[in-house]
Structure formats: C-alpha cells, structure tokens
C-alpha cells in the first residue's frame, strides 16, 4: 500500500480547478453514485463546472440522487481541469472512460478499496473506511463549506448501501458517527431508504428469481454460487445493474461462508462479485485473478474466458480458501 496524500492537499488541488469530472465505476452502486453525486453538487455550489461521468445506466432505485449530474464521456467537453476517481482506485473500473480521465491536467482518487498502485496524481485510499461516502464527507470538512441536505442524503445513501444498512462487519463506530452528523444537515433517512430499498423494478425481482433458481451449493454448504447471463437479462428485461444484491442473498443462506456471483457481460468480459460471512478472505481469491476489494467483499473482471470457465475457476479457488 502506498502513502496517502492528505485530504487538505486534495482539497487544495480541487479548489484550484474550474472544471472537475468525477469518475465512478461501471455497474454503479449506491456508494459510487452517492459519493459522486454529493461531490458534484458540492462543487457546483462552489461555482465550478462539474459532472459525474458514468459508465453504464443509472439504476432505477438510485436515480433520485442524479439531479442532472451524470453524463457519458460523449456528452461533455473533452477539456477539463481535473479528474477525480471516486469509489474506484483502478482505471479498469471505468474502462470506457479512461481516455477522458487522462485528458485532465490534474487528477485525484478518493476510495476505500485496496489499491496496488496510485491511480492519480493525488490519492487518498483508506481500506478501513466502510464506504467512499465516509471519505467524501471528510473531504468536505477539508474543503470548508458544509454539505447541504441533498448532498448529505447522497452520502447517507452511500454509507447505508455499502454497509448493508449498517449490518456488515465493515461498519464501525466512526461509520455511525458520520451518519449521525449527516442528520445535522436535515437528511430524511426514511426517504433515502424507501428510494433505495422499496423502489425495486419488477424486472430486478425476475432476474433475482432466475439467478437464485440456478444457485448451487458446494464444499459441504460453505460456498454458494450462481450466474447472470445475457440470456437471463434478456428474458427478465433487465440490465446488469439489476443484479446488485444477488450475491448478498447467496451469503444470507445458512451455513454459507463464501458467496460468488458470476456475470456475463455483453462485450465478452466476465464480472465476478464475491462476499464472505465470517473468516474467509475473498479479496485473496479475487487477487488471484487480477481483482481486488476487501476481505469480505471483493470482485474482479476476467477477459478471454467464457463464464462457464470463470465459474469453475472461482469455485475451485473458493474451495481452496475455506479449507
């Protein structure tokens, strides 16, 4: 792990920029969009030109945070002063937008995923943080102006989703302290929770049902796996973002220690999401295939193999890990 720059240093760099593009990972989740939307709104209030550069569609249950912030790389001018990667510390996490990221004269990365090397000119990566939204909150403190209600709600969304509604083991005392401070800015936590957890499109339920119907158990009940294929997406009328949450459902099965979801992309790549319940290190599993993440939540992208081959590779790697 490399040495971080300070939040004060990153804040100073941002203050010097007039136009800032915020890059979030493909198949965005609540933490990626929540952190990105909060930062985008904050920078616009400071008088800067700011956009969240998305790599994929905004999920329906997260769309309440996108108040005209998100753009594709083809919808913004190429020239900008600064690029900031949020909730992703490797450029491969936004593969279609790398060229635009590199066009800026300056760059920063704020993330909570373990990174093998610095992504940007200035980096703050803290794997002990429960969510990148926690770190964006700290960046706001370094910047000076207080967040407004909408920005605080976006940060709360990032924290609640990445902690499994404060259930996962990554939840810390500081996580609760930051969430408590967000109430001081007038957040409506119930509104956020309803939007995220009770605005589920029916196609997502269809896809989840298909995936769980194909789920298989291995290693005496300690490994649960399933797949989402392009054919399944077509039958459910779903998009890949609708697979969010399936791997957590697998982990919830009694006796399961490692849950793995294999996802077939439409461009030949295969995405893999891994979760562990207690002691297994899924980051170690993902690292064998060029991925990364946390001890209990990790992932990777595999190219050049079919989803069936990737499925077998990860089944075997998981079995080795829990021995």
Structure description:
The chain is an alpha/beta fold. Helices cover 38% and strands 18% of the residues. The chain has twelve helices and twelve strands. It has helices spanning 7-15, 30-45, 98-102, 132-143, 149-162, 173-183, 189-197, 202-213, 230-236, 246-251, 282-287, 307-321; strands at 19-23, 49-53, 70-71, 82-86, 106-111, 122-125, 216-218, 223-228, 258-264, 270-276, 292-293, 297-302. It has a six-stranded parallel β-sheet with strand order 3-2-1-4-5-6. Strand 9 (258-264) and strand 10 (270-276) form a beta hairpin. Helix 2 (30-45) runs parallel beside helix 4. The longest helix is centred in the N-terminal third of the chain and has 16 residues, at 30-45.
Biggest sheet: strand arrangement:
3-2-1-4-5-6
Shape: globular
Please report the number of helical segments.
Answer: 12
**Low-pLDDT stretches:** none
- Measured by DSSP, the beta-strand proportion falls in 15-25%
How helix-rich are the residues, as a percent range?
25-40%
Q: Between the first and last Cα atoms, what is the distance in angstroms? A: 28 Å
Number of separate strands: 12
In short:
This protein has 323 residues and is α/β, with parallel strands linked by helices. The chain is built from 12 helices and 12 strands.
List the helices and strands and how they pair.
Layout lengths: L6 H9 L3 E5 L6 H16 L3 E5 L16 E2 L10 E5 L11 H5 L3 E6 L10 E4 L6 H12 L5 H14 L10 H11 L5 H9 L4 H12 L2 E3 L4 E6 L1 H7 L9 H6 L6 E7 L5 E7 L5 H6 L4 E2 L3 E6 L4 H15 L2
Parallel strand pairs: 1-2, 1-4, 2-3, 4-5, 5-6, 8-9
Antiparallel strand pairs: 7-8, 9-10, 10-12, 11-12
Helix pairs in contact: 1-4, 2-4, 2-5, 4-5, 5-6, 5-7, 8-9
